[in-house]
């Protein structure tokens, strides 16, 4: 492995009231994949924003290939060979994949007209790196979140950076796509590109990184060779305390059948899906992105129509017309898209947690009781340890993990019998994640049936009493708690290795 | 000592977060200034005149506030005011009894609003385009029916609605104040109306929270139409005639007032009281210009600047708090 490409020395950055980075050192070698881990608020994003030229440090120095640098904006960082893939997508929905990848760098013909043919050919080559069979002319707004995320990564790769910074690059990706990303990371590494890889998913760190730096509360806690640490050690370094089995154990017994779905069909998303969910049971729903899991979850919650099929709740056949009726039957759906569909960002924690159960907080004649709402919000804050100075604070000011806790709290309010949780810990750090798992366990323990849709296999394996696998809109496999394994699920989800083995 | 000043500073900051409070301060300040400059200002007649001048707009502003809070808005209210006023006037000239004529006016307004709601909620046409079209459709209908002629000669029992007074306070003022009070309390505290803050805050999240967004939208536009109808009836009664130009630019004045009052075009914010104070502020500015002997041709320019300044102050305040 080569010499030092990036050297960060004593970088400090303050925000009103907090020291986001406190004399942080970081050294990245040429051709190295350097993982950066830490809980939300540990300072990863601030450091990345400084390296990407979005923020400037209050103190400290940064050297790139031995020369001190100070970026004033993202453009300067890009010129110096630093490309950042932010977690928030920076794509323009109404432009094509190709135009997005080469934003501002389109090949031109004489007179400044865009050379469309070359633009699309260049984009096509990049898409092939990820085996994406997408026309480069397709508009980004028609892409799935996973594909959009890959386009975002391609946009950074296309700048041929010396240092590539990836922030949670796999948050919307399925297993196969993640593997393709890793293949590309390894390929770039051989070409001498250095990569800073930020992730909450420690298995990814072990899969792809050479060294790992742990940040906690704005300070660097440790930098280690990945081969010399194990997951437990990393978690302990990140959290600063021992976290025993994050997934917990089942509380209580599994009871009688609660929910049954028979022959549910909505072409082309899913067809002929039949399964049941019992009281106190957590059923994991695994599959690739686009296998129809989210659509199925939304359909049970009556957000999407069924073309065929029946829904039974406690043995009674229901035909729900909209979410309002689903909630009236105590069926809840926690969306995978917290920002766009889950929360009311400019409203307070209190107003958010009461959203699905407003009538519970209304007294006679429909007058809202602020006192009851505040009491409930305070209960939620305690129960899920939501870190906020006040329940009247806007949720936009909370960290991702705490926002997710607010969303969980909201669904407590409907006293759910069935709760469908879609990617419940996406973008949530380890500490908050164990709080959410414990909470799901407690819900199940109190008799709620939980349908867990997740692309995180460890989460599925760690939490589920039973695991269903969907592929291309169909249920293709079912595993009991004991018989399920990572390989078997992946095989069923992809349908590839199943034939080979 | 430092402790106390920081307490005072915090209290002041919390109060200035309330748009209504800021507006009230500005309005009282303007009143004091005007009282010092002009002996006429603090007379009951002048104050009532100011209130009367905002009463009709304020009734419409109640509906508009609800619409802005839920992320919509309505450009057709000015035309709705004119058409419903004319409808009531035509019913009267056809010899219908007063209550039925009033009902006709209200019904016409509500029907126009209902159409807006259906198109916006079910056909998913953008509110700007829908109500821009409706603004011209309603005004066009009015012109076609009346052939551009004013309708006058209305019975006194009808004109009483706009011209009568209780203890010296004209009925339009009383009606407006009562409705503002009711509207403000409902939008603030009732479960039903509070749903609008959720819809304006994040429509998709509101749907997932079980709020029946389409029904609410249709209700809101219908209610706004109904209030515009009421405003039209009162305006016709006050003038004793229905004119084809009635309510011209009313929609713009009302939207300005609601925004000065703290609502945002992005939805999720705003109160009825704020909107009323916004109307009042604009009326006071006009009154000040008149009392200070400034040419009335400057009015529109000053009102436009007020709107811009109000929004600028708001934006700068939010940027300071890091909310943008």
Number of helical segments with 4 or more residues of chain A: 18
> Beta fraction of the residues of chain B?
under 5%
Structural class by secondary-structure content of chain A? alpha/beta
Estimate the strand proportion of chain A: 25-35%
Number of DSSP helices of chain B?
14
Helix content of chain A: 25-40%
What gyration radius of chain A follows from the Cα positions, in whole Å?
A: 24 Å
Low-confidence stretches of chain B: none
Task: Give the low-confidence spans of chain A.
Answer: none
Biggest sheet character of chain A: 6 strands, mixed
| Largest protein-protein interface | A-B, 32 and 22 residues
Estimate the mean pLDDT confidence of chain A. Answer: 86
Instruction: Summarize model confidence as the mean pLDDT of chain B.
Output: 87
Tell me the overall shape of chain A. Answer: globular
Shape descriptor of chain B: globular
CA(first)-CA(last) distance of chain A: 37 Å
What is the percent of helical residues of chain B? over 70%
Layout: helices, strands, pairs:
The complex is a heterodimer of chains A (501) and B (324).
Chain A: E1 4-15, E2 18-29, E3 33-37, H1 44-51, E4 59-64, E5 67-69, H2 74-79, E6 82-85, H3 97-101, H4 116-129, H5 145-157, E7 163-167, H6 175-190, E8 194-198, H7 202-208, E9 211-216, E10 219-225, H8 231-239, E11 257-266, E12 270-278, E13 282-287, H9 293-300, E14 308-313, E15 316-318, H10 323-328, E16 331-334, H11 338-342, H12 349-353, H13 370-383, H14 400-412, E17 418-422, H15 430-445, E18 449-453, H16 457-463, E19 466-471, E20 474-480, H17 486-494, H18 497-500
Parallel strand pairs in A: 3-8, 3-9, 6-7, 7-8, 13-18, 13-19, 16-17, 17-18
Antiparallel strand pairs in A: 1-2, 1-4, 4-5, 9-10, 11-12, 11-14, 14-15, 19-20
Chain B: H1 2-17, H2 19-37, H3 44-69, H4 77-93, H5 98-121, H6 127-146, E1 151-152, H7 156-163, E2 165-166, E3 169-170, H8 171-189, H9 191-201, H10 203-208, H11 213-239, E4 241-242, H12 250-260, H13 272-291, H14 299-320
Antiparallel strand pairs in B: 1-4, 2-3
